[in-house]
Design a protein that fits this description.
Layout (H helix, E strand, L loop, with lengths): L7 E5 L4 H12 L3 E6 L2 H15 L3 E5 L5 H15 L4 E4 L16 H29 L2 E6 L12 H20 L5 E7 L6 H4 L13 H12 L10 E3 L5 H6 L22
Parallel strand pairs: 1-2, 1-4, 2-3, 4-5, 5-6, 6-7
Bound molecules: NADP nicotinamide-adenine-dinucleotide phosphate (NAP).
Length: about 270
């Protein structure tokens, strides 16, 4: 396992669930880790626990990822406290609470779901990536989902958001081509968290993806072991790390594309 000592990570949605597991895994590998979420008490407690468990430097910064001024101030505070960011993980976000078809959705809640992933990922990338470009060093990870590639009718906002976020990764990676700054999609599988516990489709589900599998992939990305995957999707719990490191990735492999209806499809 590669040492990440001396590197700095910023993880959004760090107070619970996947983000909480991830900050501890990155800190255990020697990274200084900043965590961001809206609820300050819970976030502070989480980051203090991580510091106590790992001995790493941690920093808690409360912010809403959809608020431009808060995001810019948060990134400035992280850089001031820990130094330039080597790894940005856009993990914060929410899901359709009502689980109804699109036309029955509450417009404000629908848009909040989309904003949490899309505006959040955009604002964080916009605040962090320019400094990565200047240093010609850095990696961005966006949390994807099965719904990045296939919509579910009762989670229309989340499906839109996760698909858009995957396009954002692709656009970012393409714009960064030729540099040593890279962007990745990581789908975590189905991890037992407050989000999945709130979703009707996972009631009674038991075959959870261990959060360690998500952390393992993102840690390997942070260590530069999966740079060939920039602009593409990795899936925790399914993708084997040794295979991912070695595989030759063809044109558009693990990227969003239309599937042609056959040889004669003019869009094929
Ligand atoms: N769990 C899964 O199986 C699964 C599967 C596919 C994809 N994902 C994705 O993985 C990521 C983490 O999911 P999770 O299951 O760990 O969720 P979770 O347990 O509900 O945690 C969400 C985190 O995001 C923060 N957050 C939410 N909205 C925010 C906002 N506007 N600004 C700042 N922070 C915000 C929350 O804290 P505050 O509420 O205090 O802000 C919390 O720390 C999400 O992007 C999710 O879509 C999860």
């Amino acid at each position: 396992m590669a040492e990440l000592t001396g590197q700095v990570a910023l993880v959004t949605g760090a107070s619970t669930g996947i983000g909480r597991h991830l900050v501890e895994a990155l800190a255990a590998r020697g990274m200084a880790v900043a965590g961001l979420a809206r609820t300050e008490d819970r976030l502070r407690t989480a980051m203090a626990e991580v510091a106590a468990a790992t001995g790493a430097r941690t920093f808690a910064v409360a912010a809403d990822v959809t608020d431009r001024a808060s995001v810019e101030a948060a990134v400035e505070a992280v850089v001031g406290e820990l130094g330039q960011i080597d790894l940005l993980v856009n993990n914060a976000g929410v899901i359709d609470a009502l689980e109804v078809p699109l036309w029955e959705a509450d417009p404000d809640q629908w848009w909040d779901v989309v904003a949490s992933h899309i505006k959040g990922g955009f604002l964080l990338s916009r605040a962090v990536v320019p400094w990565m470009v200047l240093r010609n060093r850095g990696r961005v990870v966006n949390l994807a989902s099965g719904m990045s590639v296939r919509a579910r009718p009762e989670y229309s906002a989340y499906s839109v958001a996760k698909t858009g976020l995957m396009r954002m990764t692709e656009a970012l990676a393409a714009a960064l081509e030729g540099s040593d700054v890279r962007a990745f999609d990581v789908s975590p599988g189905v991890v037992d968290t407050a989000m999945t516990r709130s979703m009707a489709i996972w009631q009674g589900f038991e075959d959870w993806t261990p959060p360690e599998a998500v952390s393992e992939l993102i840690t390997a990305i942070a260590a530069g072991e999966l740079d060939a995957w920039s602009g593409r999707l990795l899936r925790a719990g399914v993708d084997d790390l040794d295979t991912a490191r070695a595989v030759a990735l063809g044109e558009a492999a693990r990227q969003l594309r239309l599937r042609p209806y056959g040889e004669q499809d003019p869009l094929g």
